[in-house]
């Protein structure tokens, strides 16, 4: 996996709200969903909440939406505490995974539903609905019902409906996970384009690393209800703050190594600098975390590694090898450098000279 583009267009200024989670705690029986979450979403920012199932990301979103009440802690929007404010008074628009359109209403009436509840005049709400359907690329779908539209089109209507009331915050709860890969790619680009043009503060929950890295200004990685790291996508990928982030975001090799004095580790014939904490003991055995793109492979009849497989992905080929001790290692190589690396070929493995994270040898 590659990291997100490092240069991003700026969001429209002046329209986004600042959102703060302060020491949020929420438990369901003996299960701790949020364990002291502190996090700030800047005005006009798209922040992705990323993590495995059960990490607390959806609970955090639901607390922000007003669908869940925290056991303790506060939620602030532009400095105002909204923790006890009902969901229908929070000025937030939400898009769900399951579209949640009214099956008996046309696309136009689905988009205008919130305006109808607020007793906006028919002509004005229809004009607003037409404007939003144009914005999401469905100007000719106003008279269609949900069953007459594809999943991607229904989700565009759901997005337009969430924007109809001009909310200060847009909440997206895995809105693309029910769509096929091609539609998902197109729609995430559309969501990002709209978010930037409107300058609306957006919190986006996903378990898909590629979505998070490609769409977000910053990504907050959660584990067991705690914030592991919040950073720009490129920083998160290149400089993970914890071993959990390093292994959850992207792909990572675990290679056996041995500490070689303070701040140095010997691994796969190389001596590399250690980034972050290191296990106690000047010569402790460790596991070293190395990205596949930082592994070099050369076909070598005298090499001690053996190629197991080579998977072609266009410009990149992922090569799986076994080291002499049986440790598996993945290498992402330019495809033109991988032609000679057929299964069974002996090879020499090298590592890029860059800081690495290390774990105790017995780490799970």
Question: What's the arrangement of secondary structure elements?
Answer:
Blueprint: E1 19-28, E2 31-41, E3 46-50, H1 57-65, E4 72-77, E5 80-81, E6 92-95, H2 107-111, H3 113-117, H4 122-135, H5 151-163, E7 169-173, H6 181-198, E8 201-206, H7 209-215, E9 218-223, E10 226-231, H8 233-238, H9 243-248, E11 253-259, E12 264-267, E13 270-273, E14 285-290, E15 295-299, E16 305-313, E17 316-322, E18 328-334, E19 346-351, E20 357-360
Helix pairs in contact: 4-5
Total DSSP helices? 9
Mean pLDDT, nearest integer?
A: 90
Principal-axis shape equals: globular
Number of strands: 20
Major pleated sheet: 6 strands, mixed
Distance between the termini: 23 Å
Listing every helix as H and every strand as E from the N terminus to the C terminus, the arrangement reads EEEHEEEHHHHEHEHEEHHEEEEEEEEEE
Strand order of the largest sheet: 6-7-8-3-9-10
User: Which stretches are poorly predicted, pLDDT < 50 over at least 5 residues?
Assistant: 1-14
- How big a fraction of the residues is strand? 25-35%
Rg, Cα atoms, Å: 24 Å
- Helix content percent band: 10-25%
Classify the secondary structure makeup into a structural class.
Answer: alpha+beta
């Amino acid at each position: 996996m590659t990291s997100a583009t490092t240069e991003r267009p700026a969001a429209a200024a002046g329209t986004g709200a600042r959102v703060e989670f302060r020491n949020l705690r929420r438990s369901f029986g003996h299960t701790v969903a949020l364990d002291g979450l502190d996090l700030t979403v800047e005005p006009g920012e798209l922040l992705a909440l990323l993590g495995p199932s059960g990490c607390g990301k959806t609970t955090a979103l639901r607390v922000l939406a007003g669908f869940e009440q925290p056991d303790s802690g506060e939620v602030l929007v532009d400095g105002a505490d909204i923790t006890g404010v009902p969901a229908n008074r929070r000025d937030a628009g939400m898009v769900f995974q399951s579209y949640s359109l009214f099956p008996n209403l046309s696309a136009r009436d689905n988009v205008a539903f919130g305006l109808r509840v607020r007793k906006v005049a028919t002509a004005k709400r229809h004009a607003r609905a037409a404007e939003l359907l144009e914005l999401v690329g469905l100007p000719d779908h106003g008279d269609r019902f949900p069953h007459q539209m594809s999943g991607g089109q229904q989700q565009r209507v759901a997005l337009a409906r969430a924007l109809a009331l001009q909310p200060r915050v847009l909440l997206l709860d895995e809105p693309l996970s029910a769509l096929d890969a091609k539609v998902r790619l197109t729609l995430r680009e559309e969501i990002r384009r709209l978010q930037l043009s409107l300058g609306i503060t957006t919190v986006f929950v996903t378990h898909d690393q590629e979505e998070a890295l490609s769409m977000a200004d910053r990504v907050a990685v959660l584990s067991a209800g705690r914030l592991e790291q919040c950073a720009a996508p490129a920083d998160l990928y290149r400089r993970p703050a914890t071993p959990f982030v390093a292994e959850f975001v992207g792909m990572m090799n675990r290679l056996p190594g041995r500490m070689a004095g303070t701040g140095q580790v010997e691994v796969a014939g190389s001596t590399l600098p250690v980034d972050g904490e290191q296990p106690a003991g000047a010569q402790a055995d460790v596991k070293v975390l190395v990205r596949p793109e930082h592994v070099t492979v050369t076909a070598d009849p005298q090499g001690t590694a053996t190629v197991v497989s080579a998977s072609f992905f266009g410009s990149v080929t992922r090569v799986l090898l076994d080291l002499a001790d049986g440790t598996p290692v993945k290498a992402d190589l330019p495809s033109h450098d991988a032609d000679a690396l057929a299964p069974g070929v002996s090879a020499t493995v090298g590592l890029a000279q860059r800081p690495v994270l290390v774990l105790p040898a017995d780490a799970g």
